[in-house]
Amino acid sequence: MEDAREILNKIRHIELKTRGMIDTAFSGQYRSVFKGRGMNFEEVREYQPGDEVRAIDWNVTARMGDAYIKKFTEERELTVMIVVDVSASGEFGSVNLSKRELAAEVACVFAFSAIRNNDKVGCILFSDHIELFIPPAKGRGHALRIIREILFFEPQGRGTDVAGALEMLNQVMHRRAVVFLISDFQSPDFDKPLSVAARRHDLVAIPVVDPREVELPDVGRIVLEDAETGERLVINTSDRRTRLEFSNAVGDFHGELPAQFARCNVDTIILHTDEDYIPALRNFFRSRERRLALR
């Protein structure tokens, strides 16, 4: 476990890095692609030519003798939930960042985007069970706590249960929220709770992938160990057929994930530990803006 000074320095580094990116790359986009829960009643005022007839408050009109309308303003405050996989497989990273470190940086982008727009943000950390629930709240200090927990929380479980995390989300969040679900999704079937969560919330799935999980290098015999189960397997990576079978199996898994999310109308952002995540986030915001503009 890193000492307090190292933890503080890492969190500060992530905060500074993501703050600059939020200011330059995503200024205004966060608010434009995520909507509030509805409309708030503001006041009743006299009807004016051009006002929507359907907005007339007939009870007040009958009492006052003149036409009055109800005026509403859009409810802008959002609740953002960041649901992060902290299972053992997240510690894997063959390049600069582990999957969990990448998850923390991306979570920081969304957490500080929410705080900057005066929205509430909360967090669920999960492995093969729920590890930690942080209720939504406002403030920079609260956002920093979430980032600290994502980076340094020591989970009790090693496996991944996406279904359990989504069921927890559906239990604790009774009002619509914007939900970012960050995981490698190496988990048993979670289609049903995913479908339920997608109907209740604005759900964005964020698969995190490391290049060594997609393609084996030709380096001879190696021992592969499943971080979650501890199971070990000796394979010969110099064997072309072995590499091809591995690539096909992994390709089927990563090919099915986007299709599964699409069936449930869940937006997807695929991130890779060996690539800059800013273009992926920027493309997500832009494509979502275009889609909303066509509605």
Describe the structure.
The chain has 295 residues and is α/β, with parallel strands linked by helices. It has two domains: 4-32 and 79-293, Rossmann fold, CATH 3.40.50; 39-75, no CATH class. The chain is built from nine helices and eleven strands. It has helices spanning 4-25, 29-33, 58-64, 99-116, 140-152, 162-172, 191-200, 240-263, 278-293, and strands at 38-46, 68-75, 79-85, 120-126, 130-137, 178-183, 202-209, 221-225, 232-236, 267-268, 271-272. The strands form three sheets. Strands 3, 4, 5, 6, 7, 10 and 11 form a seven-stranded mixed sheet that branches. A hairpin with a 6-residue loop joins β8 (221-225) and β9 (232-236). α6 packs parallel to α7. The longest helix is centred in the C-terminal third of the chain and has 24 residues, at 240-263.
What is the domain total for the residues? 2
CATH architecture field of the largest domain: 3-Layer(aba) Sandwich
User: How far apart, in Å, are the first and last alpha carbons?
Assistant: 49 Å
User: Overall mean pLDDT score?
Assistant: 80
How does the overall form come out from the CA principal axes? elongated
Query: Which superfamily, in CATH terms, is the homologous superfamily of the largest domain?
Result: von Willebrand factor, type A domain
State the helix count.
Answer: 9
Structural class, please?
Answer: alpha/beta
Please summarize the sheet with the most strands: 7 strands, mixed
Which fold does the CATH topology of the largest domain refer to?
Answer: Rossmann fold
In N-to-C order, the SSE pattern is HHEHEEHEEHHEHEEEHEEH
